[in-house]
Design goal:
Blueprint: H1 43-73, H2 79-106, H3 115-121, H4 134-161, H5 165-187, H6 201-206
Bound molecules: fe (ii) ion.
Length: 207
């Protein structure tokens, strides 16, 4: 009679414990792009575009955070309306950040993400930690917008020249135009018009 075969038990240990504190090398270095992608865009073009987009990303992330700082720290009689407006613009910039970062990734690049890296890269002046007056807050925001808008116009031209229509569309439709709109909403707050008494020139002459 044949001996009954005993099934061999695999020696793997089944364990419900999560494997914590793991480390490994990066799978892609910052500043590189994936070599081959079916995008009909050559590697040097994607390298140039991702480098430019990372600069735009760093500035946009800084502007986004400047809006939250302004939202929290605003003071004065216009507190409520500015508190809400700053947060509205913050949320819109959150969307812009995501659009830029994901374009960098889809072009085969690596997007900046952490605050320390953003701080090293941005061209926007660092504000103090403390609170500032409303006109100063708004001026800082407008200066930041101006840096981004200037770069958008350069990048729109460059992306067209290099044949990257997708980046051109993103920069013009999703970055430039929302920034232009926010500039309008902000800059109207710096127009010095009377709040209660209109300045009637005839009344001034008579006085
Ligand atoms: Fe809030």
């Amino acid at each position: 009679m044949a001996k009954k075969e005993v099934p061999v038990r695999r020696q793997t240990t089944i364990n419900a414990q999560p494997r914590l504190h793991q480390h490994a090398q990066e799978i892609q270095a910052y500043g590189t792009v994936s070599h081959a992608l079916p995008l009909e865009l050559e590697e040097p073009v994607r390298l140039e575009m991702t480098e430019q987009l990372n600069l735009l990303l760093a500035d946009t992330m800084t502007l986004r955070d400047l809006y939250k700082k302004s939202h929290w720290q605003v003071a004065g009689p216009t507190f409520y309306q500015l508190h809400l407006l700053f947060d509205k613009h913050y949320n819109e910039q959150v969307e812009v950040v995501d659009e830029i970062a994901e374009r960098i990734q889809l072009l085969g690049g690596v997007s900046l993400s952490m605050a320390a890296d953003v701080a090293e890269t941005t061209r926007i002046e660092r504000p103090p930690r403390g609170r500032e007056e409303v006109p100063v807050q708004i001026s800082r925001l407008l200066d930041a917008h101006q840096i981004i808008i200037r770069h958008c116009r350069q990048l729109a031209e460059l992306s067209t020249k290099l044949g990257d229509a997708g980046t051109n569309d993103l920069v013009v439709s999703d970055v430039l135009r929302p920034n232009e709109l926010q500039v309008w909403f902000l800059s109207e707050h710096l127009v010095d018009v009377p709040l209660v008494h209109a300045e009637d020139p005839d009344v001034r002459k008579a006085g």
